[in-house]
Amino acid sequence: MIEPTAVHRLTSCIPDWFAVSAADWTEIVGTAAVSVPGGASDYVVDLTITGHATAVSVRETTPRIIRSFCPDRHVNEDLTFCLGYEVGYDVWTADEAIVWWELLRNYLLLQRTADRTKRWPRGNGIAHGLAGNHHVEARAVAKRLGILDEYDGAVAGDSHWSKNPMLRIAQGGQSLCNGRLRCPMGCRGKRGRPKLRRECSHRADVAKLVALERLRSKGEEAFWNSLRARGQVCCGSLRDCPLVADAP
């Protein structure tokens, strides 16, 4: 029995917003017409989906909307789309194929927003390169702490205690130093008294978030520095690009 490929699985559950013009076991070519909530017209993109075994990638058939490599628009150097952290590597089942199509639809809506606002929507991207591992873990910790939106804002540039360079992590990484100071999260006891760092039940996650944010920030900086060293310049697609100073 021949094992179905990822592309074959995607073909079995094509959504109504994608019109196929050609397809075989390794490629699907067609047009996405994604309905935009509140929009006057659909967002239309011609796409080519390519797959081998369980892995799949997607790009514009003829680049018109996304014409060049842009990390902050989550477009890879070969112009394939980055739909999410490690998305597309394993499409083993029909359920995973359905999820992949939905991630593509969401990605196209984000691209439409980026076209209009010249900014990638906050909280909808993972850090580039090796920083991505730290970012994913940091977001999981922030979610446990109940501050995911705050943390996404911090990554986007908002002021936040998780980025405070003055916070020191105790040996072992299970708490912050200076346990008699207040918890940076502002935790309070039953009578409303601010909790000390050593009293806070969240102290291990607080320390972990600070450590992970530093690793994420350092990894992100290294990613952009590596692009600058290769002579990469801003494509001009978005505002506030870290490469903008190198644009012609």
Topology:
Blueprint: H1 6-11, E1 18-23, E2 27-34, E3 43-52, E4 55-60, H2 94-117, H3 131-145, H4 148-155, H5 203-229
Antiparallel strand pairs: 1-2, 2-3, 3-4
Helix pairs in contact: 3-4, 3-5
Explain this structure:
This protein has 248 residues and is α+β, with helices and mostly antiparallel strands. It has two domains: 6-117, Roll (Ubiquitin Conjugating Enzyme), CATH 3.10.110; 131-231, no CATH class. Helix content is 32%, strand content 12%. The chain is built from five helices and four strands; from the N terminus they run αββββαααα. The chain has helices at 6-11, 94-117, 131-145, 148-155, 203-229, and strands spanning 18-23, 27-34, 43-52, 55-60. It has a four-stranded antiparallel beta sheet with strand order 1-2-3-4. A hairpin with an 8-residue loop joins β2 (27-34) and β3 (43-52). The longest helix is centred in the C-terminal third of the chain and has 27 residues, at 203-229. The radius of gyration is 22 Å and the shape is elongated. The N and C termini lie far apart (56 Å).
